[in-house]
Amino acid sequence: MDRLGKVTVSLLRMGSGRDLRLNLEKCLALVERAAREGGQIVVPPAFFRLPAFWRGMDYAQFKLAESIPGPTTEALSRAASALGVVVVASIFERRAAGVFHSSAAVIDADGRLLGVYRQMHLCIDPGSQEGFYFSPGDLGFKVFETRFARIGVLLGWDRWYPEAARIAALAGARILVCPGAWCPRPVDGGVDPERQYSAWEAVQRSHAIANCVFVAGANRVESEAGPPKHPDEAPPFWGRSLIADPSGRIAAKGGAGEEEIVAAECDLSEVDVVRTHWPFLRDRRLDAYRNIAGHSGE
Known about the structure:
The protein is about 25% helix and about 25% strand. It contains six helices and 14 strands.
């Protein structure tokens, strides 16, 4: 059933160290605080339980992966059930021996695990070795019917692709949830960090506008050490989590350096209103898009 009421989305902006137990405890405390403050859909940043292992290639980091369901989802399921909130949790998933994914577990407000999304696009550059750790997602761009809203999930590099946001929106998502861990990228020579951040913010807002949906992007904060072999290759994460409404207006935005909860009330009926006045989905030319998959981009 498509819900059209108001829902409060809370983004947990937190940093994570090398103590996995403390990271989980911090997240659970923030989930509880978000619920007390009225949050209904709660989104921690990417890999909130782990240090920033993906910054370099180190086989020892595979030991950080876990199954879904697993210890992290079980702890969050108990919290979601007790507090009556939906939680979207980024997990380093061990699907099988030698097969790993960047995944998100979607936990409903009764504690049930609704399903898993696996990151479809992987980034490989000097600051991110996702292709070393993860297999590409194999489940497509999924939408989840939670107690409060129908949501789609995009992870990491996915959030730069208009096709990903469009497919999730066409599948019925009214909120796109984007757990992230973004910082200045070393490959962007000559492009200063603020310009990089501006592009990151612009693409989230553009997804909201082009699809007339809410977009909620949670980001990590703090400067963290990378894997042990790469202690000096870890620029600080941007933070500045944001929620954009279906017209692209920023409804809430966090700061750059501190841990906090960024929250906004999202009126899901706005999706229908904006789509009526900005009929981007109605006016698509599907007949002209049939060969899009046949173009390599060259």
